[in-house]
Amino acid sequence: MKSALIPRLRPFGLALAASLACVPQVQAQSLVQIYEAARQHDAGFMAAKAQFEATLAKANQALGGILPNIALNYSYGRSEASVRTFSPETTTSRHYQTESGAVTMAQPLYRPAAWATYRQGGRQLLLAAAQFEAAEQDLLVRVSQAYFDVLTSEDALAALRAQKTAVGEQLAAAKRNFEVGASPITGVRDAQARYDLTVAQEIAAENDLRVKRLALDLVSGLTQAAPKRLATTGRLIAAPKEDLNEWVSQAESLNPGVKQAELAREVAQLEVDKQVAGHKPTVDLQFNYSQVRNVGGTLVSGLTNYATIPTAQVVASLPLFAGFSTQYKIQEAQSLADKAQADLLGARRNAAQATRTAYLGFVAGLSQVKALEAAEVSSQSSLDANKLGYSVGVNINIDVLNAQFQFFQTKRDLTKARHDALMASLKLRQAAGTLTPQDLEPINQLLAP
Q1: How far is residue 30 CA from its own chain's centroid?
Q2: 388: which residues sit within 8 A by CB, 6+ positions away?
Q3: Would the pLDDT of 11 be above 60?
Q4: Residue 184: count of CB within 10 angstroms of its CB
Q5: pLDDT in tens, 52-90
Q6: CA gyration radius for the chain?
Q7: What is the DSSP string of 240-308?
Q8: Residue (of 223, 305, 220, 217) closest to 45 by Cα position
Q9: Residue 404 — very low, low, confident or very high, per pLDDT cuts 50/70/90?
Q10: Alpha-carbon distance 385 to 221, whole Å?
């Protein structure tokens, strides 16, 4: 009978294990472990960290404009003089030394430009912190994407290898049926064509997996990183409880791009204040304590003398005319402030749009996973029915091949949809500005031991 010639389709899990058996056995890493490795290796993240530290030092430099400036000065000189007098005419040589030391302190009392610069330094520090936060979130997404890209490629390759095995068995059955006259030659040719196509797809999938693994190694700094797979329970992260408007409202204030734009606007406005201060007076309080010692006298006296001179003064300065440069600097700063305001408006709109896209993508992704889970069951039933129909002569070989193709395609789509849904949850939090390394933990718990 035909049924004796039709091999049973291997379970997908067994085929997956067989396809991965040739992979070198290395210690698998979780998503959190690979992310921690990437923090110590990724060039972009380390550059953002160094930039933050540099900006911190630069912000503290602004303290020099509002805190006292103290200096110590010392000088030493040796002189030789020849003094000639008349009535009677005499010439006298004299040697003397002069030592002087002074301590000076200047305390700004009213310097609007210096205070604007100081406030700018604080805003620039917060801006650097927002940039570092954005770099951290970007690293989280890049590592997670590379992680799931490898898993998706592995699943695709495993499915193709399982499909090749199933098609190969179907091809062998078709040949046996043709040899005994139970089926026409078209069944053999259909199976051969599908087998050759699967082999070609397998070659492409193997290359894609190699590329994805290289990308994961590059971002993590690991050699032959082996990401842990998702558990086979089918459990995923729950859909967001908050509605779309709440996420959008959150993004318009917490998104790193929005925070950077807000701080850049404040820095630009303080630059206007600093340039306006070019028309304002400055007032400083200055103290000077100096000592002068003349050993051997001076040019006019031969007596050693010692003097202490303490001085305190208030110095005020009022700019009158600077060739119109101050006016044009104010105009430039005001135009840049207007630009920063427009950039802020654009950043808020972009954050809102990105959040809407990520939210809808996450919800749709979860729904797609459920739909594909149902499709997987249906495609399995369809495959079983076509195999049974082929065994009793109702269906032809191409029907079984098509059912096999549909079954394995659904398998690949389902695993990819699960990975995409998890990535969508991270991208939603990134768009809303709330993504942190702790958000990887729920995903980590979904991984197989």
Answers
A1: 20
A2: none
A3: no
A4: 14
A5: 899 888 888 888 888 889 999 999 888 776 767 776 777
A6: 40
A7: PSS-HHHHHHHHHHH-HHHHHHHHHHHHHHHHHHHHHGGGS-EEEEEEEEEEEEEET--SS--S-EEEE
A8: 220
A9: confident
A10: 49
